[in-house]
Amino acid sequence: MSAQLPFQRRAFLLSIIAVLLSITSCTTENRRIKTVSLIGAGASFPAPLYQRWVTDYNQQNPYVEINYQSLGSSVGVQQLSNGTVDFAASDVAITDEQASKIKKGVIALPVTAGAIVLAYNLPNIPTGLKLPRQVYTDIFLGKIKNWNNPQIALANPGVNLPNLPIRVVHRSDGSGTTSVLTQHFSAINPEWKSKVGAGKSIAWFVGIGAKGNEGVTAQIQQVVGAIGYVEYAYAIQNNIAVAALENKSGNFIIPTPESAARTLEKVRLPADNLIAFITDPIDPQSYPIVTYTWLLTYNEYQDPAKAQALKNFINWAVTEGQKSSLELGYIPLSKKVVVKIQSATKKIVE
C-alpha cells in the first residue's frame, strides 16, 4: 500500500494540473471572443416583443449585447439620423425625405405587426363595448362627452352605461401609433381629415397626454371613465377592456390576433422598400386598425462585427423570435414576408 501512495498522489496532482490548464485555455479562448454591443431606440408599440427578443437572443448569444430604449417612433428616427444608435424602430417606417438625409442609407424591415386598440376603464363593463365609426371619431373630436350618450347606448342595448364623463387619453410624444390611428380616422371621417388630419404629432381637441404606450396604458388604468389608444399587447398584458370597433363592412370586431391577421393579409409590401399601410380594410371580419412596425437599419456600417451581429439578430427575430409573438399579443409574420425581410437584410454591408 505504501508503495502505491506516491503514484496515487502523482496521478491526483496531474489530474488537477490538467483541469487548471483546461480552465486557462477556455479563459484565454473566451478573451479572444469580442463582445458586440448594439444600441437601438424608437417605437413603444413593439417594445414588449423587442425586450423579449433581446433577452432570449442574449441567452443564446452571450457575446452580443443589445439595448433597446422605448422612446417613440419620432425619437428613434431622429437618433438614427443623428447616428447615435445602431438601429431604430418606427410604426410608420421612414419617409423618403427622412431617408435622404442619412448618408449611410436606410433599410426598413417590417419585423412584427399588431393592432391598435381603444382601451377603456368603465366599472362592470368588460371587453366588447361596441363603438360605431362615427362614435369613436367623435369621442376624439370632443363631440361625444359622456359614456351614456344615446349613440353609444343605441349600439349597446342592454348595457348599463354609466353617467360618467369621457376622459380621452392620447400620446404626448411623437408617435407612430398616433400616426396609424389618425390615418384611419382621416380615412373614415371627413371632419377629422379636414380639422385634424394625420401625423405622429397632432393638435388634439380633447384629452390628456401621456408618453409612450406605457404612459397611455397607465393613465387609462388610473382614471375611471378613460379611453385611449394603445397597442393590443399593452391592453392584454394589463388586463384592460378594449372596444369592438365597427369596420367598413358594418361589423363590430373585437381585436384579436386572428382578426388583426385578417387585416394584415391584405397589406401588399412593395419589393423596393417593404413599406405599406392599410387605413380602412374591407374584409368583413377584419379589425380596422392594424399595422406593421419597422426595424430601421443603416445600409452601411463601419464596424463589420456590428453589421454581422445585427444581421444575425434580425434573421433570428423573424424566424425563431416569431414564436413569442402570439404570447405577447403580436401577429406572427407570414413566410412570404420573412423571405422578403431576409433578402433585404442581405443588403446590410460593412
Automatic annotation (TrEMBL):
Residues 37-319 form the PBP domain. GO terms for biological process: phosphate ion transmembrane transport. Keywords: Phosphate transport, Transport. It comes from the Bacteria. InterPro entries: ABC_phos-bd_PstS (IPR005673), PBP_domain (IPR024370), Phosphate-bind_PstS (IPR050962). GO terms for molecular function: phosphate ion binding. It holds the Pfam family PBP_like_2. Belongs to the PstS family. This is Phosphate-binding protein. It comes from Atlanticothrix silvestris CENA357. The gene is pstS.
